[in-house]
Write a structure and sequence with these properties.
5 helices; alpha+beta; single chain; two-stranded parallel sheet; 27% helix
Length: 232
């Protein structure tokens, strides 16, 4: 006959073992049903909000102008930026521009370029956003969450830095909209493509409110389907 102490020890072992199995099953169940945290992908998150209209995607168009090849023409009314190629062709990119009260026009030049640029909000913007309850940092280093996106072209006029930029965005759904403080925003993949083509000193003509760009002749005659598909 088994001693009482032996029976009690066996019972305790059984209870402990069952408890361990129950805990293990609970852990396994939790592990199986928990959803993994998605990676920090600002492009994916933004795209889910709203798709970019196909007309704002990069395309080669038939384009006539009196400007030299390599000139950038920004049509803020129609939300297009053209990089002129010559031979009656241009690369057309969709853009986002300044909301009402922040639109502008003029002739400037690219004097500086930066990859994954840092952002220093101007004092006026900091003050304006503070009144809305938004606290902006004095400086934000470059990266996926930076409002300037993957690349920036800094635009200068006769008086120096104009304060305006052509830059990327972590909000691609904003392309085709009026919602910035006057800068010209592009999808990150498009501004990266433009960045590789543009040299320092490139002339940029911004057609917009006030017509301070002067007399600029250009005509977008529509998509060059073959060149868009196959290049050349």
């Amino acid at each position: 006959m088994l001693k009482l102490s032996t029976l009690l020890a066996a019972a305790a072992f059984t209870v402990t073992s069952l408890s361990g199995i129950s805990s293990a099953n609970a852990l396994t169940s939790t592990t199986r049903t928990a959803s993994p945290k998605p990676p920090a992908d600002v492009v994916m998150v933004a795209t889910n909000r709203k798709e970019v209209n196909p007309k704002f995607k990069k395309q080669i168009v038939r384009f006539s102008t009196t400007e030299k090849p390599g000139t950038i023409i920004v049509d803020t009314n129609n939300k297009f930026l053209y990089y002129t190629l010559g031979n009656n062709r241009a690369i057309r990119y969709g853009i986002g521009v300044g909301r009402e009260g922040f639109g502008w026009s003029g002739v400037v030049k690219v004097r500086r370029k930066a990859e994954w640029p840092g952002w220093t909000p101007p004092p006026q913007m900091i003050a304006r956003e503070r009144k809305k309850g938004h606290i902006l940092p004095a400086y934000m280093p470059g990266g996926e969450d930076n409002p300037l996106g993957a690349r920036a072209l800094y635009l200068y006029n006769g008086g120096g830095d104009s304060g305006f930029r052509i830059h990327g965005t972590n909000q691609p759904w904003s392309i085709g909209q009026n919602m910035s403080s006057g800068c010209i925003r592009m999808m990150n993949k498009d501004v990266t493509d433009l960045y590789e083509r543009v040299a320092l000193g490139t002339k940029v003509i911004v057609v917009g409110p006030g017509n301070r760009q002067g007399n600029v002749q250009y005509d977008d005659r529509g998509v060059d389907i073959l060149r868009t598909l196959f290049g050349g």
